[in-house]
Design brief:
238 residues; alpha+beta; Muramoyl-pentapeptide Carboxypeptidase, domain 2; three-stranded antiparallel beta sheet; 10 helices; 49% helix; globular
Length: 238
């Protein structure tokens, strides 16, 4: 047997660690193409496509359906990926069902007001923790700081520009939500989060889509008007 037959071909970027990183990047940046992921990871597009193929076969990611294109394009468009519901569960760890059961018990024994109160109290603590770290006065920079804090807490957040509106606007996108499965049943969690964003950024924000509602990301419109002074600890974020 020759040395070529014995020694396996080892390709940079192979392994479960890289595959997990690909999944996390799809959550953070999706819809995203293999070429974009390859540039970020410093790998070849072929290596990234192998990981994407495995993740797609496992059902943890899916090809994003952007709907009918406004203008016909020549050639086949690049496949762009988002994390599936199954993939969100894999990113979320093993306590999502326990959280949902606890909130069902709270609603059954104490009613809707208790659930809303829990969501508000939980998010007030997050607002209090974030408020001192949002030091920027520029609205765009402040949104970027909020995205960084959310990402550190597992929300795979990013800020993306919006073309077209008369008032300069950005979108805060969260590719993962640690409490998604509970929020699918208890919208109070999402509502409290949006109120917390408004408070932290000092401006009215508009929630356009949520993972809990079936979108591939939670998307919040943020107008880039100078922020008012945050109120501090009145309400919270998820």
């Amino acid at each position: 047997m020759t040395q070529a037959q014995v020694a396996p071909q080892h390709v940079a970027g192979d392994g479960d660690g890289t595959r997990r990183r690909v999944l996390e990047l799809v959550a953070e940046r999706g819809p995203v193409s293999a070429a974009e992921l390859a540039r970020t990871l410093g790998l070849t597009a072929a290596a990234v496509r192998r990981h994407l193929g495995c993740l797609e076969q496992d059902g943890t990611i899916a090809v994003h359906d952007a709907g009918p294109a406004g203008h016909a394009r020549r050639g086949r468009p690049a496949r762009r990926y988002v994390v599936s519901t199954s993939g969100q569960g894999e990113l979320g760890g093993g306590y999502t069902e326990l959280a949902t059961q606890a909130m069902r018990y709270l609603r059954r024994t104490a009613g809707d007001d208790a659930v809303a109160g829990f969501a508000a109290e939980r998010n007030a603590a997050v607002v209090q923790r974030y408020a001192g770290r949002l030091t920027a006065t520029d609205p765009h920079e402040r949104a970027e700081q909020l995205a960084a804090l959310l990402s550190a807490d597992g929300y795979a957040a990013s800020v993306r520009p919006v073309d077209g509106p008369q008032v300069p606007t950005v979108q805060l996108c969260q590719g993962h939500c640690p409490v998604q499965h509970a929020a699918e049943e208890f919208s109070e969690l999402c509502e409290a989060e949006a109120r917390g964003f408004s408070e932290l950024l000092g401006t009215h924000v508009q929630r356009l889509a949520t993972l809990a509602g079936g979108a591939h990301a939670c998307v919040t419109n943020i107008p880039l008007s100078p922020p008012n002074r945050p109120r501090g600890t009145q309400e919270g974020t998820r």
